[in-house]
């Protein structure tokens, strides 16, 4: 079984769908699912990870304030053998940035957990484009942190 955190959002919802369509057993969790799971209260994840083989970890924001060690301990106790963390390209491209320091700590904890792990450092996700709507309408511009670097943004589904 695979546990997907953030299962009601723009990443989690399609991931749950893709995994179930591929025949995987999935437990979808978020703060609004029943039972709810709040990553900032790791013990609430216990029922979801009991007997799970893998955990897809999508942390809110940059994960500031998250007790990642406690969360990984709950996952291990439940039988989780692999963690896949959705991180950010900024952890690698701006390693000294205080804004992304919490994600660096989470990445390091996952890598040092003794579990099998994968860290996905996503660039712009297609859903991020909604944040650009106002500046595109008003100024016909998209602001990015690197003025001289093109950002890869995946295309949405085609019909």
Automatic annotation (TrEMBL):
Lineage top rank: taxon: Bacteria
Domain NAD(P)-binding residues, every copy: 6-128
Pfam families per the UniProt record, alphabetical: NAD_binding_10
Protein name: NAD(P)H-binding
């Amino acid at each position: 079984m695979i546990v997907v955190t953030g299962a009601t959002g723009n990443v989690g919802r399609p991931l749950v769908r893709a995994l179930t369509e591929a025949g995987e057993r999935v437990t979808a969790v978020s703060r609004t699912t029943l039972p709810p799971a709040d990553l900032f209260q790791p013990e609430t994840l216990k029922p979801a990870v009991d007997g799970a083989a893998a955990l897809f970890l999508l942390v809110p924001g940059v994960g500031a304030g998250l007790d990642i060690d406690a969360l990984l301990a709950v996952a291990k106790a439940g039988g989780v053998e692999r963690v896949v963390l959705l991180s950010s390209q900024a952890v690698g491209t701006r390693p000294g940035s205080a804004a992304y320091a919490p994600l660096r700590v989470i990445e390091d904890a996952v890598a040092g957990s003794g579990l099998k792990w994968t860290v996905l450092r996503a660039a712009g996700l297609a859903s991020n484009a909604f944040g650009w709507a106002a500046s595109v309408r008003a100024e016909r511009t998209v602001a990015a942190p690197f003025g001289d670097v093109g950002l890869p943004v995946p295309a949405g589904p085609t019909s």
